[in-house]
Each structure stands twice: as C-alpha cells, then as structure tokens.
Design brief:
This protein has 243 residues and is α+β, with helices and mostly antiparallel strands. 21% of the residues lie in helices and 25% in strands. The chain has a 5-stranded mixed β-sheet. A 4-stranded antiparallel β-sheet has the order 3-4-8-9. The protein has a two-stranded antiparallel ribbon with strand order 7-10. Strand 5 (148-157) and strand 6 (160-167) form a beta hairpin.
Length: 243
C-alpha cells in the first residue's frame, strides 16, 4: 500500500547513506530515519503543530495506557497532592536539579490547544499548560555530549518501568512542554499527574505521563532494551513517531 509516509521513505533511498552523520546509533539508520530526516527537511525543524481555538476542544478526552500507576510511592505522592513530588533532572547536565511542582509553575508558561493523535486511531483536542522543556534544560545546562532526553515515569508494566525519549531537536522545540494542567485544571491522575510530556509533532505514545525524572544521555543503548521507549522495546513501535 502506498501511503504518504511510504512514498517519502521510498523517495529517500538515496539519502539514507547521508543520514549517518546525523546520529551515532546504528539502530536509527533505517526507513524510520529517512522519515525523520525528510519530515524535518521538508517542514523545517521549527515547524509547529496546528493549534486550535478554545471552542474546538473535544468534549471528552479519553484516558489511554496507564490510568493510575498505583504503586505505594505514587499513591503517597497523590494523597499529598504532589506537595512532596520532585522532578529530578540529571545525567549529562552541569547542574542537576530537583524541582517541585510549585517551582515548575513559577517558570514562564506556555499554553497550547493541540490535537492528540493516538497510534490506535483516535484523536482528541485539548489545552495543555506548563513550562517549555528547554527552560528546564537550560537551567540544568546540557553538557556537549548530550544527544537525547529520556523521561523516566512512575507507571510500570510488570517489571518494566515506562520511559520515553526524544532527541534535542524535539526537546528544544517551542511546543515541547512539561504540562501540569489540562483544559485549565490540574492534570488528573488518569491524564498523567503531576506532569506529562507534550511533544506535539509526534504520536500519543511519545507523550509520557507521570514523569519523575529527566535524564540527558549520549546514547539510548543500555536504557531499557535500547530502542528508546517502553513500546519501542516491547512492541516494535517506531522511536520517531512524527506526524
């Protein structure tokens, strides 16, 4: 079947060899890499996802994936309305951080109304608010060796903790935020309280919920099964899920 994505990939055969210089990870040198390279080349790295008007928000925004991490640690934080929760920012940074929810809320905020597109085929429009991720990363100070940003989450699937990752292009995109509010209210537990990632140019499974730690790394090898995220490791989902 010829789809828009397949057509782009088929047209990229001659470009794959040139993609070597954009990544140090061999597993990314694939049709997926061509998709990423072409999308950013055609639309531009700073191209933004469409934003909507307030009256266009969906009346119902379903909870998908984990509805509640339901671990003793998470339940204790939720019972205290996340007053004791701290976001750890570490790895390849000059200044490791431990940020409270109040500190994140005191930073410059971005609000955006965007469409969430799930890999399962459904979509919904919602309003998200929080600091831009690049505000936090600049506060921590990325080291030169950093190439990816990994989000470690409170929810678990059996013995495996949920995680996701993005590269620095998406990390520093103006619409990539750490959302603590949805539709002008604090995030519900089902929607990822106390914060979730919003990386608006990618599919829904990249929007990690229940973020506890942000780690800057040089390579994704050695984290989980090394493919960049829980669903990428367990079900073969694409790491770059650009839309």
């Amino acid at each position: 079947m010829i789809t828009r994505r397949n057509a782009l990939i088929l047209g990229a055969g001659g470009l794959l060899a040139g993609c070597n210089r954009f990544t140090n990870d061999p597993w990314l040198l694939s049709a997926e890499d061509a998709h990423r390279f072409l999308q950013r080349s055609i639309t531009g790295r700073a191209a933004q996802a469409r934003e909507f008007r307030a009256e266009q928000r969906s009346p119902f925004f379903r909870v998908n994936g984990t509805a509640n991490p339901n671990t003793p640690e998470y339940n204790a934080l939720a019972a205290g309305r996340f007053a004791d929760w701290r976001l750890q920012v570490d790895g390849l940074v000059a200044r490791p951080l431990s940020l409270s929810l109040a500190q994140l809320q005191s930073m410059p905020q971005r609000a955006q109304i965007t469409r969430h597109d799930c890999v399962e085929g459904w979509s919904a429009i919602g309003k998200w608010q929080g600091p831009r991720l690049d505000t936090v990363l600049n506060l921590a100070g990325l080291r030169d060796a950093a190439r990816y940003i990994v989000f470690h989450c409170a929810d678990r699937f059996g013995p495996h903790a949920y995680y996701e990752s993005i590269d620095l292009v998406d990390a520093f995109h103006p619409q990539t935020i750490l959302a603590w509010a949805m539709n002008d209210r604090y995030l519900s537990v089902g929607h990822g309280a106390p914060i979730r990632l919003r990386v608006e140019r990618q599919l829904g499974y990249k929007q990690a919920k229940y973020v506890m730690r942000i780690e800057a790394v040089a390579s994704l090898a050695g984290i989980g099964a090394g493919k960049g995220g829980y669903w990428e490791d367990s079900n073969g989902y694409e790491w770059y899920a650009g839309i």
